[in-house]
Design brief:
By secondary structure, the chain is an all-alpha fold. The protein has one domain: 23S rRNA-intervening sequence (de novo design (two linked rop proteins), Up-down Bundle), CATH 1.20.1440.60. Helices cover 76% and strands 0% of the residues. It is built from four helices and no strands. Helix 3 packs antiparallel against helix 4. The radius of gyration is 15 Å and the shape is elongated. The protein starts with 13 loop residues before the first helix and ends with a helix.
Length: 125
């Protein structure tokens, strides 16, 4: 028999915690971007990263599963946006291979967890 973790808050979700780690990593790496990217790629990357755990949290606070799924879909879209921005930063040589790979691994982990949560919620519906 498998014990289920009790989820009382969005802060209890592993996907939210992993998404928060992705935000921290994104902020640290984007500090190295050129100053003329402050209102471009730096800002865009940070906003996309912040959107992932924010939408997970907002969705968890909604009353209906459909609303929760909608916010998880937005989180997933923001994750895809961030992955694209990481690849752009690498192409522009703002990131080295190790930095790109580490961020993309974190993003992929969050994506897998998001997919699992979405699947679980759809089954509950």
């Amino acid at each position: 028999m498998r014990a289920e973790a009790v989820i009382r808050s969005y802060r209890d979700l592993r996907v939210w915690s992993a998404a928060m780690d992705l935000v921290t990593s994104t902020y640290k790496v984007s500090k190295k971007y050129p100053k003329d990217e402050l209102y471009g790629l730096t800002s865009q990357s940070r906003r996309a990263a912040v959107s992932v755990p924010s939408n997970i949290a907002e969705g968890h606070g909604r009353k209906h599963v459909g609303e929760y799924l909608h916010h998880l879909s937005i989180a997933n879209g923001s994750l895809m946006e961030l992955e694209t921005q990481v690849r752009i930063a690498f192409r522009l040589e703002y990131l080295n291979t190790d930095e790109q790979d580490a961020l993309l691994r974190r993003a992929a982990d969050v994506g897998r967890m998001l997919a699992g949560l979405i699947t679980s919620l759809r089954k509950r519906r």
